[in-house]
Amino acid sequence: MGGLTLNVNVMFCIFKLSTVALFMPYAAAFYEVINMGLNDTVSAERVHISFFGMRNAGKSSLVNAVTGQELAVVSDVKGTTTDPVRKAMEILPLGPVVIIDTPGIDDEGELGEKRVQKAKQVLTKTDIAVLVVDSTKGLGRFDNMMIDFFKDKKIPFIIAYNKSDLLNNVPDAAKNEIYVSAKDDRNVYELKEKIASFCKVKQLGKDIVADVLEKGDTVILVIPIDESAPKGRVILPQQQVLRELLDNNCTAVCCQVSELDATIKNLVGKPKLVITDSQAFEQVSAIVPEDIGLTSFSILFARYKGDLKQLIDGARKLKELNDGDTILISEGCTHHRQCNDIGTVKLPGWIQKYSGKKLNFEFTSGTEFPDDLSKYALVVHCGGCMLNETEMKYRIAHAVQEGVKIVNYGVAIAQMNGILDRSIAPLKF
Fold first, then answer.
1. Distance CA 87, CA 65 (A)
2. Is residue 204 within 8 Å of 315, Cβ to Cβ?
3. For residue 103, which of 127, 126, 132 has the smallest C-alpha distance?
4. Where are the domains of the chain?
5. Which of 21, 28, 191, 200 is the most buried (most CB within 10 A)?
6. Looking at the domain 307-424, which fold is it?
């Protein structure tokens, strides 16, 4: 019986490990589902606070002290944190945030270098950085390297000198410095206050669409329910737009493409705006009269957390493609792809047809976004609803810096349907 019990236990462990491995590509989606309720602030709308530092500086201990929970594994063994650890939570006085604990930036060997690269990757989504330094040792070479990264990427940062309980005399701290002790909770509250004061909190009053509407306006939301629509729910951009309309005392009417014509005719007055899923632009634009404003969820998000002017400029590149050009199609999430997936199936087909060229396509998803974009003639990016504003703007700026045009799904589809000017006309930017 003992042998049987052992074998069963071993099999169960193998099952658990294989299950974890199977679903690792969907980790971001699972993270949202498991750790957040329906009424919680989504990760993309939270302030991202990332902790960096050398091994054994006490990053994880300080993260646990700041969050008030055992978020990160703590050990005297160097390199305990092997991958970035994320946690969505509420921290006063900041409110909803994402805390990220990163691997040691001085890790060694081939595996260590990969961990360091993961830590650097976190910078693209970081709103404020906390550099944790062992106060008994002071700033080291790797610490100064990270400070250079922060400055280069214009990320506000604080240097938290940890283990100050071991100092005989605590020096005076500069404006962006603080002496703390995760061990005895010294100045941890003060660190949170300093983070709040340094943080580039999301622009108050920034709207997705409400700034182009007035109280009492009627807006039609066209939400196709097809093989790509998630069962039992609407996708995040649609949820966010709907809630913003309700918050601003507008009337929101939702329908599918097949009901759009009847919906417009049944309204007592004209709707101020029609917002559609970009995939339905062709059908919707043919139905909506020219005197009614028309745009898409993707274009709204291009303005909300991206750089709409740069993306419009990128759309012009679609007509300038040449045979053999390689196009990167990048998505910010890792959703389960359907047989008629927009990113891997529909868009490549539409772009080939519109350009009249034989093109090559490559695809990335989730946190993966190439450092070297030189091989690409164009980057086509999703609306970025699962990315925070910092990361979305980084990706656009990175493409521009590399001399590569970038466009998002909605802007590209509007361009290919000959309605780009019409679809951006209702917007301020």
1. 14
2. no
3. 132
4. 37-198, 210-300, 307-424
5. 191
6. Rossmann fold (3.40.50)
pLDDT tens digit sequence for 179-212? 999 999 999 999 998 998 877 544 445 799 999 9
pLDDT in tens, 211-262: 999 999 999 999 988 666 666 678 889 999 999 999 999 999 999 999 999 9
CA geometry: angle 302, 308, 309, nearest 5 deg: 170
Burial of 342: CB neighbours in 10 Å, binned 0-12, 13-18, 19+: buried
Q: Answer yes or no: same fold for 210-300 and 307-424.
A: yes
Query: Which of left, alpha, beta for 187 (phi over 0: left; psi -120 to 50: alpha)?
Result: left
* DSSP state at residue 181: B
What residues contact 78, with CB distance under 8 A and at least 6 apart?
A: 55, 56, 104
Query: Whole-angstrom Cα distance, residue 235 to residue 224?
Result: 11
CA distance 36 to 339: 29
Given a contact cutoff of 8 angstroms between Cβ atoms, the answer to whether 43 and 88 are in contact is yes
Least Cα distance to 132 among 214, 187, 90 occurs for 187
Bridge-based pairing state of the strands 85-91 and 95-101: antiparallel
- Does residue 303 or residue 45 have the better pLDDT? 303
Q: Where are the alpha helices (DSSP H) in 162-307?
A: 188-198, 236-247, 257-266, 281-287, 297-305
With residues binned 3-state (H G I as helix, E B as strand, rest as coil), the percentages for the chain, rounded to 5, are: 45, 20, 40
Bridge partners (DSSP) of residue 350 are none
273-276 and 293-296 beta bridge pairing: parallel
- CA–CA separation, 28 vs 49, rounded Å? 17
DSSP label of 102: -
Given a contact cutoff of 8 angstroms between Cβ atoms, the answer to whether 67 and 185 are in contact is no
Structure tokens at 259: 């009901």
CATH number for the domain running over 37-198? 3.40.50.300
**What are the φ/ψ torsions at residue 381 (nearest 5 degrees)?**
-110, 150
Topology of domain 210-300, per CATH? Rossmann fold (3.40.50)
Task: Give residue-wise pLDDT tens across range 20-40.
Answer: 333 333 333 333 433 444 445
Residue 267 pLDDT more than 50? yes
